[in-house]
């Protein structure tokens, strides 16, 4: 997808799902143009591809814990199949669509849609599992018309059961945890004890706690209505939290819920007690699921500032490298002229060139230019290898290509002018953040009014 196509597609989706962000695309386009003019971006690259525009919420956990039922309830639609046997055997990426009908697409469709942070996911899956290149075996995409999913993406996953999980699923899970803004790990209140915490679940919990962003993980004990028979909710929650703390999760966000439409609690008093607990925890979970959209919007706006500052910082080192290159080439050219000129003069004295001065001049230039271009490419590749920063390296290579006159290298980089343009972009990003703040405050106010 070309940058232009990406801007258009992103704008289309944003207009539908998160209109506030539409104007930000133009700022990204401006940023791309500046970075491209310096050489920090290739013409087919864009910063819009290096950030995920839609927040990702992953729903992971043991098999039959009620992950898919939770998603259906949340969306208010039966999107996923549910059942007591292991139902899901692949990841389902769920996103918004205008169409009433639920559309199911194969995993490769994810590559073509700019909403997904899985930039070229099929290539990444190939990297994860070179023997199994069929991305459709692991992933599918469902597009659903539900206001609840506007501006965000949910991922339903296959349940974690010991033994049967293949390596690829585990690795995709780690990858998904990395990419996600929020991770809900579901446990089954019918088996909360450590025995249920088998290899694959251990892996999941370990990946989640060792993650730098462990705060984004919520631990959810589901189906607590099943505690009603023995009225032992506290005991069950205790056993579950002990099991988790043995795995190293000492603090964290623990919730206990159930799916009201699937539960049958006979004792009305107990039903009320469980419902109260469930309502509290469920609203905390859904509030977090809503908040990811705002957090993501802030990150998208802030990213303009970060990128702009990065560019400003990288201009000077690039100019320095280019000026070293220029001086080196100038010295080389002087030396070349002296050597080639000397040899030519010597040859002209011993060989009789008198009948063709042109041939003599032609030979001089031929030798000089061949040596010049050869040495230019050797010096450029030698110097670029020593540049650690890949962005600066890319721009350096671009400006020292053989077609570029080296005497002009770097002279077009008017730092002051570029800085002025970037500062106005930084201001635009700050202004946008202010707008987000205003909207967020207004939302909160509206909530208070409706609550009151
Ligand atoms: N009583 C009760 N049953 C539930 C609850 N949530 C889900 N179930 C039932 O539990 C079974 C498993 O639910 P699913 O939603 O398919 O579970 P899953 O985690 O998606 O399972 P896999 O996709 O197989 O990993 C289904 O029969 C659901 O009807 C709940 O809160 N309470
Ligand atoms: Mg399921």
From TrEMBL:
Residues 57-205 form the Dynamin N-terminal domain. Keywords: GTP-binding, Hydrolase, Membrane, Nucleotide-binding, Transmembrane, Transmembrane helix. Signal peptide: none annotated. GO terms for cellular component: membrane. Its main location: membrane. GO terms for molecular function: GTP binding; GTPase activity. InterPro entries: Dynamin_N, Mitofusin_fam, P-loop_NTPase. The chain crosses the membrane at residues 327-348, 354-375. It is found in: Membrane. PANTHER family: SARCALUMENIN, TRANSMEMBRANE GTPASE FZO1. This is Dynamin family protein. It comes from Nitratiruptor tergarcus DSM 16512.
